[in-house]
Amino acid sequence: MAALRSRFARGSLAIALVALFSGAPAGADEHDPTEAGNPVRIVAYVLHPVGVAFDYLVMRPAHWLVNREPFRTIFGHEDDL
Fold it and tell me: Per residue in 9-27, pLDDT tens?
């Protein structure tokens, strides 16, 4: 049993190393001054973190609560298939 675990660990390590070193290097998008200075884009840069915080602090806990009984029946929550 120990030999099987050791073999599995070596195989897992080999797969992880191949996945780690076989990927293409990441790079940033090209800077386009015609789009970067757009006022709507600037507002989006400011509002995006607010929306993410709202999602994590309000919407996800609300969904968790509504997904539990008795609220599930009251609000008619159904699971996605």
Answer: 777 777 777 766 777 676 7
DSSP 22: S
Q: Can you tell me the distance from the alpha carbon of 80 to that of 4, in angstroms, rounded to the nearest whole number?
A: 39
Residue 62 lies in a domain: yes
**For 40-59, what is each residue's pLDDT tens digit?**
888 998 999 999 999 999 99
Residue 27 within any structural domain of the chain: no
CA 62 to chain centre: 19
How many domains is the chain partitioned into structurally? 1
The token pair that represents 80 in the structure block:
């996605």
CA distances from 34 to 29, 30, 38 (A): 14, 12, 7
| Cα(56)–Cα(62) distance, integer angstroms | 10
